[in-house]
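hey so u asked for the seq, here:
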Amino acid sequence: MITFRTSLNRYQLDFYGKKMLLSFCELLAFRNKIRRIDIESHFYNDHNGIEIISLCNLKQILILETRDVLELKDVMDTIFTPINEAIAY
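ran it, C-alpha cells below
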C-alpha cells in the first residue's frame, strides 16, 4: 500500500514499507515523473510493465509495476487537488 503524510514542510511517502522523506520541490519533480509515464504502453507486447524511477536526490530508486503506477498517479492527483474541488456537490 502507498500512503502519504505531510509534516513540518516535509512530505513522507510510504511505498510498501519504504519511507521516503521529500521536500516540496522533490515532491513536484516526483509528481512530474509519475505523470509522464504512459500507462497505455504497459499493455503493449513490447513493454515489460515495469517502470524504474529515481527520486531527484538520487538516494532512492523505485521499481514500479503497472498497478503501482496507477496507484501513485491517483495519490499524486489527490495531493494536488484543491480541497474545494474534492468535495462533491
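The chain has a mean pLDDT of 81. The first helix runs from residue 24 to 36.
lmk if thats what u needed
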